[in-house]
Amino acid sequence: MKRKRIYIAYTGGTIGMKKSSQGYVPAAGFLTETVKNSAEFNRDEMPLFDIEEYCPLIDSSDMSPAHWQMIADDIKAKYHDYDGFVVLHGTDTMAYTASALSFMFENLTKPVIITGSQIPLSQLRSDGQVNLLNAMYLAANYPIAEVSLFFNNQLFRGNRATKIHADGFNAFDSPNLPPLAKAGINIRLLEGQLSPYIDNDLQVSRITPQAIAVLHLYPGISADVVSSIINDDIKALILLSFGVGNAPQNHEFLELLANANERGIIVVNLTQCLQGQVNMGGYATGNALLNVGVISGYDMTLEACLSKLHYLLSKNASPQSIRHLMQDNLRGELSR
Ligand SMILES: NC(=O)C[C@H](N)C(=O)O
């Protein structure tokens, strides 16, 4: 059987870093050489691959919407030459990039898997080899036509994944959707649907930076603190509320939200809880938010909500249509 071809877009992250006097920093050339010369990556059962090393390689804390665009455009340019795509990325903002890419790609019929590691390949006990090897193997043999994230033997839907561990190998979880696949002795598909290899016209939407505020509520938060965040420059506000979407009944606070809504600011309610979804009909404290025009983010991760807002605001749609689409399931990012 003809060997599949995988394109690896290497953006940076711990996986290819080396020690410096200031801590780990990306090291140009190192990962590409290591992988190209490794017997394991070149076994007959593995797909053929090319690695494109981005310049400069970055720690993912430096990622921005411009980088999301660069990655998406790069994959589009190579789309017809490869069977699948792996994006090597730092873990810190990996779930943001995975979410953003999931919205930017339309008509995706090939797998795009984003991965990285917690310990660099250059160090003992690195999780980098197993993450990259499995991501490549899955992209070639279990082509799930969506943007996914592989980490610690689990493949997650990209816009459902979130970083849950700062220093464990189990750095990611998908609290509101089972993994798409699990890699044990055998690879088990759970939620993932294998894609038929039909060539379709891949579309990439443009994303531009957007002024979006994120407000984490806490008991006793003052209206002054809230009003300092809701200024005229923001286009959207993500409210991280209590439980199923509840907030203080404070009149001034609700007034501020009502005014923001009237000015066209999109206010989305997400729960601070890791699992479960917003239901503003559950309690009077949630219903008050609904009454001032706050919309539900259901069970979206913060990463999915933030990148979905970027995606929709970049289209310059009306606030009304953005409010509507935010509550629609566009790429499997929410359950309702
Ligand atoms: N494990 C990692 O990749 C963390 C690193 N700071 C990054 O996100 O680039």
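^ asparagine complex. The chain has a mean pLDDT of 96. Residues 12-14, 59-61, 90-92, 116, 118 surround asparagine (CB under 6 Å).
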